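Deviation from plan, reported transparently: MRU complex.
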Amino acid sequence: MKIDGKEYRALWQEGQCVKFIDQRKLPTSFEIYTARTIDDIAYAINDMVVRGAPAIGAAAAYGMAFGRQNPKKSADLLKSTRPTAYDLFYAVDSMTEAIDHDENAFDAAAAYAETIITNCKKIGENGEKVIKDSMKILTHCNAGALATIDHGTALAPLRNAHEKQKKIFIYADETRPRLQGLLTAWELFHEGIPYALIADNAAGYFMRKKDIDLVIVGADRIAKNGDFANKIGTYEKAVVAKENNIPFYVAAPASTFDPHLRDGSQIIIEERGRQEITEISGKNIMPDWVSVRNPAFDVTPKKYVTGYITEEGIYKK
Ligand code: MRU
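Because the crystal trials were delayed, the predicted structure below was used instead.
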């Protein structure tokens, strides 16, 4: 992704370190987080310095490289950081295999990261075909370069359509409580793609007004039957899209498809801390007695999905 004329990735290796754009600080400040150990990586994933399923997977691959002397312990630590994104588990298992086969662990992690980037590029090429000139497109959370190292999943087709000079307009859901929609706005702003950030609960209003022609979202885990987990609020958007006959696409690489799960009821949903709800920018906005629940993801049944945009093509089933 290009930021102020300079190419960036969400994370990259530099000597013995792995550097991350610190996504907790965006868009108000652009800071780099440096990981030198597996614990630094585990912290970065858990505290959401890095986030988005494919990027978490790449971070975990580097975590395994740092922890290569004790692959079992390293795998257990990394797998305990966030439970929902399948990419994390896929990356850790791929790296365990590479380490078992005596491959150079940092080379294997770098190759893993490159594969993600290549796959997202292909998702962009394949997904662009569903975007027609003048379409207004809704996306939820941030499934952009920040979430995938580069290009994005849901945002990759938008980038490609824009490059091909298709006139598009993006509605970016704000995505309470972590406001990942602001990260999407940040990426679109730097790409010069016209957009508006909207409150999560405004999407239905725009759909009913026929102001949204298409929805594209990412995914954290896709079960064998096509049910998928994504950022909390995705399910509602899918239901309202169907009610309004708006095509709803899920963009994700193979590393997000979990071959072990029969359907979405088996997906573990992460519940995060109360502060994400009770605080904004570190400032408490609610009294201590307020009781909260904070599920980070929800599951959307496959019947709401028009198609799955992958690196191999678009699957309808
Ligand atoms: O909690 P997050 O920010 O890691 O959640 C991210 C999402 O839900 C994304 O939509 C998903 O990981 C796809 S990212 C290409």
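Residues 105-127 form the longest helix (23 residues). We consider this an acceptable substitute for the interim report.
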